[in-house]
Specification:
The chain has seven helices and four strands; from the N terminus they run H-H-H-E-H-E-E-H-E-H-H. By secondary structure, the chain is of the alpha+beta class. It is elongated. The C terminus is likely disordered.
Length: 170
């Protein structure tokens, strides 16, 4: 990924405020040309600055009101096979390889406790999974966010001091 400059940070911050902003609206707001905004957005897209759209869809809206985290302890030599099998479980919305005593931390969504029990059993049935430890999320206290990181990067880069001074074409 290319390093982000002031204009990139301004674009990303503006999109955090209004993700549906058009190139024209962004150009007007940031006092840039539409072509500059379009080129910058294309470069940000190519550099994988944006996550997939499905991160914005709430599992609750799809009928999965509960979230749980499952610590999965595995036989390391079977890790690739286990990951392939876990990928086939639709209720697994995220998984991370971990350092420390847990091998994989899996985030699952479920309809109720019985559904969670079924999902846990499906994970345990994967060959090479030794055991799991499950914790039900009681509530999301800090939702996924990057705006504070953008704000910090912007302060470090001097974004917002003077829009004319921050203006860079292309």
């Amino acid at each position: 990924m290319h390093s982000l400059d002031r204009v990139d940070l301004q674009l990303l911050r503006a999109l955090c405020v209004d993700p549906r902003s058009t190139f024209v609206a962004l150009a007007q707001q940031l006092r840039l040309s539409r072509n500059t905004v379009q080129a910058r957005m294309a470069r940000l897209e190519e550099s994988k600055a944006f996550l997939s759209f499905d991160r914005r869809i709430s599992p609750v809206a799809l009928g999965y009101p509960l979230t749980a985290f499952i610590e999965v302890h595995v036989q390391q030599k079977r890790l690739a096979q286990i990951i392939a099998e876990l990928t086939l479980i639709p209720e697994i919305v995220q998984a991370h390889g971990m350092s420390g005593p847990t091998d994989i931390l899996v985030r699952v969504v479920c309809t109720d406790a019985d559904d969670l029990f079924r999902i846990d059993g499906t994970i345990l049935a994967c060959e090479g999974v030794d055991r799991t430890e499950t914790s039900l999320a009681m509530g999301e206290l800090i939702p996924y966010r990057v705006t504070p990181l953008l704000d910090r990067a912007g302060r470090d880069a001097g974004v917002g001091r003077n829009a004319a001074a921050d203006r860079t074409d292309t």
